[in-house]
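Before relying on records like the one below, remember that each one covers exactly one chain. Contacts with other chains, cofactors or solvent are not represented anywhere in the record.
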Amino acid sequence: MSFVNLLYRDVRQISVENFGSGSISVEPGPDENVVEGSINSADSSLLDAIQVRQDRDHLRIQLPKVLSGSANAHLRLGVPSGLSYNIASGSAEVTMSAEIARSRVVSGSGDISLGSATDLTSTTGSGDISILAVKGEAARVSTGSGDIRIDEAHCPVSAKSGSGEVLVKALHHSELRASSGSGDISVPSTSGSVDLRSASGSLTVGIADDLPAWLDLDSVSG
């Protein structure tokens, strides 16, 4: 296994482009001003083709498009909290436990797992999306056939799945618009407004006593 070490300072934004298969892991680092990590791959020619550069406060990690579909690599980053990200992968599993600011996280078919996210857009073609908390102005989450899970929502949320289940465990004084072609949609606890649509799945909403809530529910056969 060959690897490339990374060490950069004064970074506020990170882009990962054309990442094929494998994994992307972003975790809290030990230094509030340093981004450190590594890229590992069994294909040394792939590592030679990866471009890593810093433009002021923007760190870019880019694979050539001609290789991205079949490229298998593993990226690990230790980062300060509150950076912004633009991540695009083919089928790599994306795991981000570090707190992230305004970000776009996209995977063709891999799973996406996030910690706390502010102003998030996240999509995957067939993978699952799991998020501990969303906040800020809005969160937009969608998957073609996977499941969506959000533990805590503190901002307006749009969640769409073609055939998977949607679970928002707690909606706090905000609004949720969720839809699924055939999956169940569940909001166990809400103090906001809820608009749920499912063609054939079941819809479940829990409302705490003495809390106002607005509901608009539509299920054709569920």
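The chain has two domains: 1-93, 111-222.
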